[in-house]
Write a structure and sequence with these properties.
Elements (H helix, E strand, L loop, with lengths): L18 E3 L4 E3 L2 E9 L2 E3 L2 E9 L4 E3 L2 E3 L1 E4 L2 E3 L2 E9 L4 E3 L2 E8 L4 E3 L2 E3 L2 H21 L1
Parallel strand pairs: 1-3, 2-4, 3-5, 4-6, 5-7, 5-8, 6-9, 7-10, 8-10, 9-11, 10-12, 11-13, 12-14
């Protein structure tokens, strides 16, 4: 019941990785990309991905990250928004606030920040509240 689960991260397949930042590379600036990106080096800047992010054990991101899924084995110092799943492995470290749909923290992983959980239902509720508030404001004008 409480045994260690193996997670099937099919986005962590090297045949499906579109961009790789090697462990001897350091990039400064914002990266915007589609597909899957793997970072084993250092990124000093924000990362916006219409796809998945894999940060290897030697990978470091000093900036904000926004993506669909993220598997963190290295370090992120910044805020993270994951539209689907964020997994911090046993060697991973995240220092910053997160907004996620699904959050997995392996034993010995480090997370220092606040967590906001989102799901499809809460987004629908928030959208309905926004519509009601907008309609009420329009009637009062």
């Amino acid at each position: 019941m409480f045994g260690k689960k193996e997670y099937d991260n099919n986005y962590n397949n090297s045949d499906q990785i579109d961009t790789i930042i090697g462990k001897n590379s350091k990039i400064e600036g914002k990266i915007t990309t589609n597909g899957t990106i793997r970072i084993d080096g250092t990124l000093d800047g924000d990362l916006f991905v219409q796809g998945n992010v894999i940060i290897g054990e030697s990978g470091k991101v000093n900036g904000n990250v926004e993506c669909f899924n993220i598997e963190l084995s290295g370090t992120i110092t910044g805020n993270t928004v994951s539209k689907e799943q964020l997994r911090i492995t046993n060697s991973g470290k995240l220092l910053g606030d997160i907004v996620v749909k699904s959050f997995i923290v392996d034993e010995n992983a480090v997370f220092e920040g606040s967590c906001t959980m989102k799901n499809d239902k809460s987004e629908i509720v928030n959208n309905e509240k926004s519509k009601k508030t907008a309609n009420k404001d329009a009637k009062n004008s």
